[in-house]
Amino acid sequence: MGINFTWLGHSAFSLNINSHPILIDPFLQDNPLAPVKPDDVEAEIIFLSHAHGDHLGDTVAIAQRTGAKVVCNFEMTNWLQKNGVENVQPQQPGGGVDYDFVHAKWTVAHHSSSFPDGTYGGQPNGFILTADDKKIYFAGDTSLFSDMQLIGNEGIDVAFLPIGDLFTMGIDDSLRAIEFIKPKFVVPMHYNTWPPIVQDVASWAQRVNSNTSAQPIVLDPGGTHTIA
Ligand code: NI
Ligand code: MN
């Protein structure tokens, strides 16, 4: 029992919440870091931050095989229903939904969102998941923004932040984000997938330890951490 999470490379994670499997941004087939294939994962819920191919990933195939509910913004649920995924739940920033074993509250992210086929994908998002009195903030693809302080006011246990730079915040801004969010633990994502977003994650972790009150959790692809 309890909560653990496994990094699947890029911004893809599997979470296990009291034996309920969840996927976040399951980009696996074309993800050079992914340790598993789309057919190898289980999910009751798939949470999607936005519609870009490196986040939508293999959602349609996984949802069709597992019957998982796909939670994402309204425009994305429309696209998914037109593309053969019936079990969807839209959420928009500020809105919260109880999913039995986990509560999800949608947040803003500063980025863009379009499907690989060019369809408008609504506004990009992050979200706060609450289960077992633990709060997990998944920032999605975003720049630093000052309202991260409001998210920090909720008392975040674990924050998942992009550090790859170029398409999202980089290492310097991730440290400023940690100051705003004040999580107990912070997990880097959206780095090392391709050469333009390679980062020195050991240096990042050292700076998190030296300059913030958060504890870094650096996983190799396929690595799992249990939230104490
Ligand atoms: Ni993106
Ligand atoms: Mn991305």
Features:
seven-stranded mixed beta sheet; 228 residues; binds nickel (II) ion; alpha/beta; globular; single chain; Metallo-beta-lactamase, Chain A; 21% helix; binds manganese (II) ion
**Major β-sheet, in short?**
7 strands, mixed
CATH class: Alpha Beta
Tell me which ligands are bound. Answer: nickel (II) ion, manganese (II) ion
Treating each run of at least 4 consecutive H or I residues as one helix, how many helices? Answer: 6
CATH architecture verdict? 4-Layer Sandwich
Overall mean pLDDT stands at: 98
Alpha carbon gap, first and last residue: 11 Å
Overall structural class, as computed from helix and strand content, comes to alpha/beta
Helical fraction equals 10-25%
List the SSEs and their pairings.
Elements (H helix, E strand, L loop, with lengths): L2 E5 L5 E5 L2 E5 L20 E3 L5 H4 L2 H8 L2 E4 L1 H9 L5 E3 L5 E3 L4 E6 L16 E7 L2 E5 L9 H5 L5 E5 L8 H11 L3 E5 L11 H11 L3 E2 L7 E4 L1
Bound molecules: nickel (II) ion and manganese (II) ion.
Structure description:
The longest helix is centred in the C-terminal third of the chain and has 11 residues, at about 170-180. Helix content is about 20%, strand content about 25%. It has a 7-stranded mixed β-sheet, covered by helices on one side. A 7-stranded mixed β-sheet has the order 7-8-9-10-11-12-13. The chain has one domain (about 5-220): Metallo-beta-lactamase, Chain A (4-Layer Sandwich). It is globular, with a radius of gyration of 16 Å. It starts with a strand and ends with a strand. The model has no long low-confidence stretch (mean pLDDT about 100). It has about 230 residues and is an alpha/beta fold. Nickel (II) ion binds near residues 50, 55 and 141.
